[in-house]
Design brief:
By secondary structure, the chain is mainly alpha-helical. It is built from 20 helices and nine strands. The strands form four sheets. The protein has a three-stranded antiparallel β-sheet with strand order 7-8-9. Strand 3 and strand 4 form a beta hairpin.
Length: 443
Amino acid sequence: MSVNKKLVIESEVGTMQLDKVKVMEESLQVFDTRTGKLYPIPIHNGDYIRAADIGQIAVPEAKYLNGEAKHMNGDTAPQIARPLRILDNGYQHTACMESSITYIDGQRGAIRYRDFTIEHLFHDYVYEDVMHLLLWGHLPSTQQKVETRALMAEAAVPPKSVVDVISAFQRDSDTYPMILAGMSAFAASDSTISATRHQQKPMFHGSLEIADQALLRTIAYIASTIGLIYCHKNDKVFTNPEKDRSLIGNLLLMMGYTDPKIEQCLNKLWILYADHEMTNSTAAVLHAGSTLCDPISAVISGIVSAYGPLHGGAIDLAYEAFKQIGKPEAVPVFIEGVKLKKLRLFGYGHRVYKTRDPRAALIEELMQEHRDAVHANPLLRVAMAIDKAANQDPYFVDRGLKANADLMGCFMYTAMGFDTDMIIAITCLSRAPGSLAHWRESL
């Protein structure tokens, strides 16, 4: 549509002819039948419009008051235009920010971090490389790895106050509240974090050097908290981190895992969960961060979100179902219960992907590599039986319901010997750099 082209618009008020209307090359032309006005709404990058442009569409308030607006004393009030609003429950059709970090094409089944395909990163790099890529937009040099490892290792040594907080819980307590308590204790021990709420000038906005150090400490605090929780729940001795180890290497050291195969597996698996664009938990991090709070508080908001049953918490519910089913032979009865809507199958289906999640094939590579450990686990034998039934039953096939990559990845944690109640906590750690990359981008 070109500039000055004559438009003929059919509406409920009749046919209108509008001459010399400025029409943009990439735009929506919105005709408001209430006022007879035409609004050009620019389309940016071919796939989005700005809500502020919709907000310019307005109508005098008096139109909805059956005449003139009045003050309480009866005097005529000034005319106020009521801007048009957009209602989008669940934000299914709304983008809340522009970002250069992660791109997901749910129609084609593609994921890119900073323009690197997920397949390329999975096969040619390790998680430590991807963490740097997400946070700072480039792959790290050897020196940058050394410096980052040393900073995080130093921060991950827990002060006595944090150890005491975790030790105060019963050993069989839920992991979720223990994480919140541990992270809060770390926040109280960090002078920069504490100062954030006691100065008028923003601590991190416009101060990326301070922000970078704080976000790395935050990641280290999560790892240390998880290590402390795991050791406390299993009555193990906590081992302090070492400065020459990666984040994953130190997490396993703090938890007491020594098998190098586990670190190799997580170095690949965590790449698949390092970021996933604007998830509920990432949005929670940004929502909290928009108040100028510290990164620990922002990440705690994300963890709270991640544990919800309709987010990461679905993993716990899926595993509870595996335990209740008990053995592969009982799966057919469970599947029939799901089809009759008497039972619910958590961890199947995904709102983003209209085709296969590209992470699924990469997880299958890991599962094949560790197939003996996968098939040896009783819970995973049940999970595999469910997956086989779902892939063959028309009820699931017709609805495109497949095990999503979030659930499939958890099978690897189980195969590696991690306790079920630690899985969501560990996945929160793997996602934290991605969420904090978005937080940093907002600064």
